[in-house]
Amino acid sequence: MEHYYSKEPTSKSDEKEIKYELNEKTFRFLVDNGVFSKERVDFASDLMLKALVTEEISGNVLDVGCGYGVFGIVLSSFFDINCKMIDINSRAIGLSEKNIKLNNCKKIKAVQSDSFENIKDDELFDVIVTNPPIRAGKKVIYDIYSQSYKHLKSGGCLYLVINNKHGAPSTKEFLTEMFGNCEILDKKAGFHVIKCVRERI
Ligand SMILES: C[S@@+](CC[C@H](N)C(=O)[O-])C[C@H]1O[C@@H](n2cnc3c(N)ncnc32)[C@H](O)[C@@H]1O
Questions:
Q1: Which residue range forms the structural domain that includes residue 115?
Q2: For residue 159, is it within any domain?
Q3: What is the pLDDT of residues 6-34, one digit of tens each?
Q4: Whose CA is nearest to atom 24 of ligand 1?
Q5: Which of 13, 46, 63, 70 has the fewest CB neighbours in a 10 Å radius?
């Protein structure tokens, strides 16, 4: 059965364009069958983006589970960053590549990767962002959290969004244990936007 997290979606392609606005900037996204949130930018992703644009984001950014490229593309337009976007889904990566061009983004690339498998062991980031693939299961999302910790520079930040009913409390406990901190930047309709900092050593 096909899921939004299938490696190679088999549903018939039917690309269309949607628009997304944030702080008076308009973005254009090609979307398709077999990818996450193809009707509109997801409510939780929008909530997290509104919080992210109030943060100071710079350096090398990794978008884990990028879908059709929302976080990486929007952040690249608000901040001067180098961005890498990864997703397990080949169709999502194809759309991200088209959306990078459609939105005239520079210094950003999309790479197909199952979790961090195509990120080099010694590749470190200043910021990692994710709307984690809850439906892929706890093992996958907790692996993304642990790999994110390993791939953050000292002082680097992980941002994620998760709903109470999908385990926000246990996620916060796990992240607090790993990072030694866990801040809630915003909350709405059960969704929590979470920030953890890999403290300087
Ligand atoms: C909740 S969606 C978020 C998509 C996008 N960031 C957005 O905000 O619209 C999670 C994404 O994670 C991807 N994903 C699922 N399992 C994955 C894995 N093991 N490695 C990388 N990406 C994965 C899915 O294909 C999906 O695009």
A1: 41-197
A2: yes
A3: 788 889 999 999 999 999 999 999 999 99
A4: 5
A5: 13
Instruction: Report the run of H or E that residue 86 belongs to, with start and end.
Output: strand 81-87
Any ligand 1 atom below 6 A from CB of 133:
yes
Counted domains in the chain: 1
Name the token pair of 34. 């077999």
What is the reported pTM?
0.97
- Termini Cα distance of the chain: 45
- Residue 32: which region, alpha, beta or left (left: phi > 0; alpha: psi -120 to 50)? beta
Atom of ligand 1 nearest to the CA of 115: 20
Residue type, 37: S
- CATH number of the domain encompassing residue 190: 3.40.50.150
**Structure tokens that stand for 157 in this block:** 């930040």
Q: Which residue has the CA at smallest separation from atom 12 of ligand 1? A: 65
In the reported structure, the alpha carbon of residue 92 is separated from the centroid of ligand 1 by a whole-number distance in angstroms of 9
Is 36 domain-assigned? no
